[in-house]
């Protein structure tokens, strides 16, 4: 560094003495010249050769000396800015150094292993130049180390990503920059208020929630040309939606909303991009090539990108774009490989009869070990509590069981043993008040011996149980509902205490509705027979449900307060059903089956068709989700109780909106009619002006009317039977 400083000073001194140097050179080379001046001949212009003995004439040159009193106000930074940036200073290298504290204290025998582990962890942040481990007189480490990186950016990345890094269950590393010690030691004793900073307008990610009439947004995805996907964003205003934005080539395949509607994710060959705000500006991009689908954590802090089967799965921080953890797929289906707790605190996966739960503060295993459960088949998080429900398959002389486990203490809250189990499905209610485990059971088993060693087991018939866990009651009691017929579908009411089941033969199935109450067994409240339906779609607000047959495209809208069928409808070849977040509208869509039938229908919650949209190459319709309400349950009950007070206010507002919309529609139609009339009049004038030319081309025969050339008219009589009466004569 000292050598670099000396070299810099020498070059600066040489630059300032350069005019004197040129003058001295001129005097040595041209002793007859009292003052050095630059030649007027252009450097690239060749000089004429002079004959030997002929004197050379030097023309008078302009004077380039500075005038008297001239002040040189050009700084060294302006002349040699790039060069001076490389000038060493006292603080060089300090910003590249970090201090790692809470390292295990080890002796000389274990030091090489510790050194290898520490350097393996910290080399991911950048190139390491030097590592120093202070030691005591007995050659033991002192519990901290200094690591120098090649540049300041690597040191900052190490502090950001590795501070609070959990080395094991006893040691958590604390990482700070070396320069921070001086900064914190220079804190003044007397506090002074910070200077106010000018306001900087930022992109508001939640402005869609400020809509005065609580009108939801939706996006429509369509393929305009092969390989070009268009996304149209609209506001669900009445009577016609309002287009907010249209993006061509917005994504390569499809889009996906985040759980609370803050972000939208697009897919590209290089990776995925997250957008947000009123104009959907880019929030962050994540370089995971050929990512097929994504999963966003419930609180929208993390994004999981899934590559093709057998490839990498990556967890990212949405705001910073940092890669938090990566896994390698086992080659099976990647769908829902990682499952999140409701508060984003934990993420879990199932690997080789083990539940691996990772704490998202460090993304290391909870308590540094997995939960081993022999024979485990599946698990699921509660949507409102840090509780895991999992089930274990039946083995010889060992029954199957369903277990509820509290996290992070890993205590078993409830266990239910099950016999003759073929399969189980776990269904949590959205409010987390109930858990239903659908159990497929063998009704009878029979053993037939082939020889003394082997035997075959034949199972005759199946029946089904629904084990209902009351999560909010003491000791979590379990009730059972038995159904003998084949189960086609099951669905919880999102807000409420009812659940519905489709059972029986697909051609003539029955739909049963059960209600669960605190301290009581589930009660059958309604059974609808001879229904041709295959799917159940509850309103997000409860009470209303759509019984859908997606093979035939038929829909029944049911009010579960009195179980009346409000309306029936059909949408040929419809393959998807989407409720809006408020539960006021339903959309059915058709895509990919027949080009002439592609598009979507919008229905009211009562089953009335509001809009039919035929869209060529229609791909996807998605409502923008909303975050949970901030109102308490008591406040919501109060609003529902006093809803009649606000009814007249909302009714007049809707009427005014429809009147305004009708007026705008009438004005729009009048304008279109005027444009058409003007266009028609223009074409009629052109047609009349061309009449003379037409007659010249047609041998002066006027053919503009049918009566103009009666010789070319053929008359044909067609008889049509209008009615046939039969009279019986006695």
Automatic annotation (TrEMBL):
An annotated Gene Ontology molecular function: translation initiation factor binding
Q: Where is the composition biased (Acidic residues)?
A: 56-69
Which Gene Ontology biological process is one annotated for this entry?
Answer: formation of cytoplasmic translation initiation complex
Among InterPro entries, the record links this protein to:
EIF3B, eIF3B_RRM, Nucleotide-bd_a/b_plait_sf, RBD_domain_sf, RRM_dom, TIF_beta_prop-like, WD40/YVTN_repeat-like_dom_sf
- Parts forming coiled coils: none
Map out region (Disordered) in residue numbers.
40-69
Q: Does the keyword Protein biosynthesis apply?
A: yes
Q: Where is the RRM domain?
A: 96-180
Superkingdom assignment: Eukaryota
**Where found?**
Cytoplasm
Subunit details for this protein?
Answer: Component of the eukaryotic translation initiation factor 3 (eIF-3) complex. The eIF-3 complex interacts with pix. Interacts with mxt.
Q: What protein does this entry describe?
A: Eukaryotic translation initiation factor 3 subunit B
Species this chain originates from: Anopheles epiroticus
Instruction: State the taxonomy lineage.
Output: Eukaryota, Metazoa, Ecdysozoa, Arthropoda, Hexapoda
